[in-house]
C-alpha cells in the first residue's frame, strides 16, 4: 500500500518538510487532505492517529507516525539507500547532524514561531499586531541568525559540508516569515544568506512552492 501523508497541501509548516524529504528521496506517496477549515484535525478519527489534533501524520501500511521531524527521520532511515544520504552514518558526522537538529528545535524554531505568531497568527485572527513586541521578536531571531552566520562561515550546511535532514528541518515556518515581509534570513549575515538561498533554490523546494504538496504518480 502506498505511503499516505495526512495533512494540508500548503508547503509552509510540518507538512512541507515531510514533502521535501519525500521529493528528495523520490518516495511515492498519496496526500490525504485534512480539511483544517472544517476542523477535521479535531475529529475523533484524526485524534485516534494524531492525539494532539495536528497535521501531519503518515500511514505507512498501517504504521502511524506523527511529528514532522520524527516522520522525516523514519523515512530517511527507511529509504537510506535511496536518493541523498540525509542522516549520516559515521559516528562523528551523525553527532554533528544531531547537534544541528537540536539547535533547530531549541534555538531556531522557537524564535521563528514567536515572530510568526505575533505577525501572521494575530493577523489571521483579526487581532492587532503589537509592533513593539514584533520588533523585539525579530531582533531575538536576528541574534540567533548571527550565530548561524558564524557557524555557516566555517561549513556549507548546518551539520557540516554535506546537505542533511537538519537543513530540511529549517524549512519549517521560516518561509512563512519571509513571505510575510520579514526577510530577516537574507539580511543577518552573508553566510546565512548564501545557505538559505541554496535551500530555497533546491528543485524539491522550488517544485513544492509552485505546486503545493501533491500526491506523486503511483
Ligand atoms: N510539532 C508538530 C507541529 C505540527 C503543527 O503545528 N501543525 C499545525 C499545522 S502546520 C497544526 O496542525 N495546527 C493546528 C493545531 O495545532 O490545532 C509537527 O512538527 O508535526
Structure commentary:
It is globular, with a radius of gyration of 17 Å. Helices cover 52% and strands 8% of the residues. It has a 4-stranded mixed β-sheet with strand order 2-1-3-4, with helices on one face. Helix 5 (131-152) packs across helix 8. The N and C termini lie close together (10 Å). The chain contains 9 helices and 4 strands. The protein has helices at residues 14-25, 44-47, 68-78, 91-124, 131-152, 165-169, 174-179, 190-200, 203-211, and strands at 3-7, 29-33, 57-60, 63-66. Residues 13-14, 41, 53-56, 67-69 line the site of glutathione (GSH).
Q: Let me know the average pLDDT.
A: 96
Query: Residue ranges: pLDDT <50 for 5 or more in a row?
Result: none
Structural class: alpha+beta
Separation, N- and C-terminal Cα atoms: 10 Å
β-strand amount: 5-15%
CATH architecture of the largest domain: Up-down Bundle
How many helices? The count is: 9
* Series of H and E elements: EHEHEEHHHHHHH
* Total beta strand runs: 4
CATH class of the largest domain: Mainly Alpha
List the bound ligands.
glutathione
- Overall shape: it is globular
Radius of gyration: 17 Å
Query: Which percent range fits the helix content?
Result: 40-55%
Largest sheet: 4 strands, mixed
Q: What strand line-up does the widest sheet have? A: 2-1-3-4
The number of domains is: 2
CATH-defined topology of the largest domain: Glutathione S-transferase Yfyf (Class Pi), Chain A, domain 2
Catalytic activity: RX + glutathione = an S-substituted glutathione + a halide anion + H(+)
GO molecular function: glutathione binding; glutathione transferase activity
Pfam families: GST_C, GST_N
Protein name: glutathione transferase
Amino acid at each position: 500500500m502506498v505511503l499516505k501523508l495526512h495533512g494540508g497541501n500548503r508547503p509552509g509548516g510540518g507538512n512541507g518538510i515531510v514533502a521535501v524529504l519525500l521529493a528528495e528521496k523520490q518516495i511515492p506517496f498519496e496526500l490525504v487532505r485534512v480539511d483544517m477549515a472544517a476542523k477535521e484535525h479535531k475529529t475523533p478519527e484524526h485524534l485516534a492517529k494524531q492525539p494532539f489534533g495536528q497535521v501531519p501524520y503518515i500511514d505507512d501500511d498501517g504504521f502511524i507516525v506523527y511529528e514532522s521531524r520524527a516522520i522525516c527521520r523514519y523515512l530517511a532511515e527507511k529509504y537510506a539507500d535511496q536518493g541523498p544520504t540525509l542522516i549520516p552514518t559515521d559516528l562523528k558526522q551523525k553527532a554533528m547532524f544531531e547537534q544541528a537538529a537540536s539547535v533547530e528545535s531549541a534555538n531556531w524554531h522557537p524564535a521563528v514561531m514567536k515572530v510568526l505568531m505575533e505577525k501572521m497568527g494575530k493577523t489571521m485572527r483579526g487581532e492587532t499586531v503589537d509592533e513593539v513586541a514584533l520588533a523585539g521578536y525579530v531582533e531575538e531571531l536576528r541574534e540567533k541568525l548571527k550565530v548561524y552566520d558564524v557557524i555557516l562561515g566555517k561549513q556549507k550546511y548546518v551539520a557540516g559540508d554535506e546537505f542533511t535532514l537538519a537543513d530540511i528541518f529549517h524549512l519549517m515556518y521560516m518561509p512563512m516569515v519571509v513571505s510575510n515581509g520579514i526577510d530577516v534570513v537574507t539580511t543577518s549575515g552573508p553566510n546565512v544568506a548564501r545557505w538559505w538561498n541554496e535551500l530555497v533554490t533546491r528543485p524539491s523546494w522550488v517544485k513544492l512552492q509552485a505546486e503545493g504538496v501533491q500526491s506523486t504518480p503511483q
